[in-house]
Amino acid sequence: MIGNEISEKKFSHILEPLKIGPEIIRNRILVSAHQPVLAENGLPTDEYIQYHQNIASGGAGLQITGAQSVHPTGMNEYNCLVNHDKSIIPGYQKLANAVHEKGGKILAQLTHFGATGWTGVLDEPAWAPSPVASEIMRVTPHEMTFSEIQEVVESFGKAAKRAKDGGLDGVEITGAHGMLIASFLSGFANHRKDEYGGNLENRMRFLLEVIDSVYNHVGDTFIIGIRFSADEKVEGGINILEAKEIAKRLESTNKVDYLNVISGTNLDYFQRWEHWPATPAPHGLFANLAREIKNVVNIPVFAVGRVTDPSLAEKIIAEGYADMVAMTRSHIADPEIVKKIQENRTEDIRPCVGANYCIKQILQSKPVRCLYNPEAGRSKKLGPISPVKNKKKVIIVGGGPAGLEAARVAATRGHKVEIYEKDKQLGGQLRLWGDTPTMNELQKSLRWFESQIDKLDINLNLNTEISKEELLDLDADEIILATGATPLKIGSEPWLPSLEIYESPIVKLVTPHQILDGKITNINKAVIWDQAGGEAGSQTAISAAEYLINENIKVEIVSPFFTIAEDIHPTLRTPLYKRLLSSGAILKPNSELKSINKDELVIQNIYSNEKETIKKVDVLVPWLGNKSDDKLYKELVKDGFNNVHILGDAVAPRTVESATNEGAKLAREL
C-alpha cells in the first residue's frame, strides 16, 4: 500500500527491528516500566493483562512491567506486581501469552525499593546500604548486613527464574531511582566502610553480584537489561563521567544485553518529581545522557524522557542518540502509536500533552488514567467501540471534554451527531488551561478532538446557545447535555465564606475564566484568592496567576490551605513553584480573605488570626468553586423527556478525566 510505503520511509529508523540479547524486537519503540496500579494482592488482574495486551496490539516493540519487589523488605504496594514466590508465575503466563499473541515482547522490571519503598506495607523497616532517608518517604532505613545483602542478591536471581518460568522474555534490573541497587551505586546514598562502599568498584559490587545471580538462574536465552541513572543531579551522586565507567563495566560482564538510561534519584525531593517531566518541560530531555553512554558501549542503549512525537523518536534513533526510544506516557494516551504510523495515520495519534494525570493517579495508588483517553486502565471495563445497528440522531449541547468524547464515540459507532457550543471555541476548562503559556501544550488535545470531529463528519455549531424549544425542534433521538459549570461569585450562595466589602471599592472582582480569556486589561497588581481548591479548581486559579505573571503583572496568591496549589500533584507543582517564585509571585497560604476596602484587601491567618493588609490591588480573582449549569437538563426532565442525558461538570464540577470518561461510557450505551 502507498500509505505504508510513505510511513515506512519517514519512520524507517524507529520501525527497524533490533536484536537485544537472544531476542529480535520488531521495532525501536519502547514502553518503559511504569505502574498501571491494576494488580490485586500483587498479581495481575484481567484489566492489567488487557492493558499490556492493548500496548502489544498497538505495535510497540518492547514493553516492561512496573517495578516489582523481589524481597519483602523492599516493598511498594500490593496493587503493583509482587515477585516473592511462585504465586506470580500463573499471572506471568497469562500476561506473556496476551502480549505474545499480539507480536510483542515483555520484560519484568525487578527491584528492591530500598529507602524509597512503603515500609508500612509489611510493618518492616526499609533496607538500604546506609541509613540515608529518602526526602520523600522521610523514614530512616536499616543499614544492611553482609548476610542480608547476600539474601537480597539471591532473591533477584530467584525472581528472574520465576519470570522466565512465567514465559516472559526477560528482566530489567532497576539500578536507578534511588532504589536499593541505585543507593549502593551512588556516593550520595552509600557511606559504607566495607567492601560494598567507598570507591566505584566497591559500590558496583552489589549490582554485579545481582547480575551474576540473575544470569546463573536464567542463562543466556533470557534478556537481562539494566536501568540506571547517568546523572543523579545531587552532590556526591553519580555524574556522567562515573556513569560511563559503570556502563563499560556492565558491558564487560557479557551478561547484560542493554542499558536503559535515566536521570536523577528519587531520594532527592526535586529529582523525584523531575523524573516525570510534565509540560512545559523540554521534550527528549534525557536523550543526551543516552548518547553519552552509547558512545562508550556497543550493547543497545535506550533513551527515555518525554518523547511524545514519533518524529522526535525517529530523530533520536537516526542521529545516533540511542538504539531504542521510550514513549511511555504517550502510549497511555494512545497505545496504537506504531499501528497508526504503519497505516500512515499519524494525524490520528492522540498526543500526550504532559498533563501527568497518569502519574498523579499512580502516586496516589490509584489505577492509571489519562487526562483525555478514558480507555487508559479501564479498556476492559468500558468495552470496545462497537458499530450500532440502529443509527440515531444524537444532539450534544456543550463542546467541552465530556461533549467532545461523547460525540467522537457516538459518531464512530455510526450515529449522526451534532454539537451545539455557545462559545466561539471548543474545549471548556481544558481550553482555558491551554491558553496559559506554560500549559499551552494542552491545546494539542483540542486540536486532536477537532480533527476527529472533522473526520467523522460531525455537524459542529459554534457561537450557538440553544434553548429548550430550539432543541426539541431538532427532533433528536438522544439529547446529551454537557453544559459544564460556571464560577461561583462572592455572595452568590449561602455556603460561601462571608466577606466584608466597604464603601467605594476600587478593586475589580473577576473570575479566573475572564482572566484566561484575556478580557481584563490595565492591571498592575492582582490577588488570586484560591478559596475552594480542588484538583481542577486550583489548576484554573493558578493558570490565571501564571497568565497574569506572563503579562508582567504583580501577583499575590492567597489560600486557606497548607500550601498554595495543594491539590495540584507534585510533578506539576514543583516546577510550578519554581516559575511562580522566580517570577516574583508572593504566596500566602494558611490565609483567608476577610475584607475589601477601596484598593486594599485584608487577609487573616486561619491559625494565628493575625491580620495583614495587601495594598494597591487592581484586581481580585476569587476561586470559590464552580456551580453546575444544569438548567436546561432540569427543564427537559420536568417536561417528561426521557431521552435526555447529562455529563461532566453539568452533573457536578470535577476533572477533565471524569468528563471524558462519562462521555465515553454514555456513548457506548446509546
Secondary structure elements and their pairing?
Elements: H1 2-10, E1 18-20, E2 23-25, E3 29-31, E4 39-40, E5 43-44, H2 46-57, E6 62-64, E7 68-69, H3 89-101, E8 105-111, E9 127-128, E10 142-143, H4 146-165, E11 170-175, H5 180-185, H6 200-218, E12 223-229, H7 240-252, E13 258-262, H8 269-274, H9 287-294, E14 301-303, H10 310-318, E15 324-326, H11 328-333, H12 337-342, H13 357-363, H14 379-382, E16 393-397, H15 401-413, E17 416-420, H16 429-434, H17 443-455, E18 459-461, H18 468-473, E19 478-481, E20 485-487, E21 500-501, E22 508-509, H19 512-516, E23 525-530, H20 535-550, E24 554-558, H21 570-582, E25 586-588, E26 591-597, E27 600-605, E28 611-614, E29 619-623, E30 626-628, H22 631-638, E31 644-646, H23 656-669
Parallel strand pairs: 3-6, 3-15, 6-8, 7-8, 8-11, 9-10, 11-12, 12-13, 13-14, 14-15, 16-17, 16-19, 17-18, 19-31, 21-26, 22-29, 23-24, 23-29, 24-25
Antiparallel strand pairs: 1-2, 4-5, 20-30, 26-27, 27-28
Helix pairs in contact: 2-3, 4-6, 15-23
